[in-house]
């Protein structure tokens, strides 16, 4: 790939300017972090696997009419995406008690919830991604009421589809985080799914054993982190031949 200007670098990905207006190149790193960046490390091959997993899931969602920013995968670590205006809200959908939900309410981890619960978190590293309400979101102008309605409707649709997809390969979708963006096409705006969907932002447990096959293995020092990501890719039928390979990211212009 020719030299491209770096637009943004986060904990797990780098965004470069795309080959044509309105596009970006999303590069997946092996870097891992948890607990609002207090714990950091590297999961070898994670970027390659997450690129493939997210490509697969975004493509399947697109096929059922869920609008996304994904265009196509470019190589082992990069994909072409549409440039969107990211809404600074993380939408978390919970099906089973785990993580912070279990701690906050004293619910044993693994307890099925009466129904899926949606939570919102303000996307701010400096503030530690605080939980917020719909009132905060609309009062502070992070999203309009109609935007929020669209985000919730899409999140529930994604949950329904992915829960069934993962169930079919012996995995339980415990919870997951989504991000959304505004896609502008001339004077028209629509809300689309952005970021990624992978074991980085989904809790995935084996149906029979409840073995964790996601980033909780890194958070909780459970070991075999790389193997867990590979197992998810293997069950989806997309593990690259010979295991995860590697390619270098595009050179950047400062």
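-> sequence recovered:
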């Amino acid at each position: 790939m020719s030299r491209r200007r770096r637009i943004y670098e986060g904990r797990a990905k780098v965004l470069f300017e795309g080959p044509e207006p309105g596009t970006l190149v999303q590069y997946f790193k092996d870097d891992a972090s948890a607990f609002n960046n207090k714990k950091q490390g590297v999961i070898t091959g994670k970027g390659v696997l997450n690129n493939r997993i997210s490509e697969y899931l975004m493509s399947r969602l697109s096929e059922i009419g869920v609008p996304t920013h994904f265009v196509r995968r470019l190589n082992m670590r990069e994909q072409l995406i549409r440039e969107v205006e990211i809404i600074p809200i993380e939408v978390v959908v919970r099906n089973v008690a785990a993580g912070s939900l279990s701690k906050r309410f004293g619910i044993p981890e693994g307890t099925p919830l009466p129904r899926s619960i949606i939570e919102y978190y303000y996307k701010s590293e400096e503030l530690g991604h605080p939980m917020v309400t719909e009132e905060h979101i609309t009062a502070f102008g992070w999203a309009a009421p109609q935007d929020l309605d669209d985000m919730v409707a899409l999140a529930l649709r994604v949950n329904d589809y992915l829960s069934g997809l993962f169930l079919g390969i012996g995995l339980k979708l415990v919870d997951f985080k989504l991000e959304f963006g505004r896609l502008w096409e001339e004077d028209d705006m629509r809300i689309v799914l952005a970021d990624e969907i992978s074991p980085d932002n989904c809790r995935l447990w084996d149906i029979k054993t409840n073995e964790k096959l996601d980033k909780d293995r890194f958070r909780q020092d459970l070991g075999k982190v790389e193997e867990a990501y590979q197992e998810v890719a293997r069950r989806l039928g997309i593990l690259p031949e010979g295991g995860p390979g590697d390619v270098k990211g595009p050179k950047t212009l400062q």
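Residues 249-254 have pLDDT under 50 and may be disordered.
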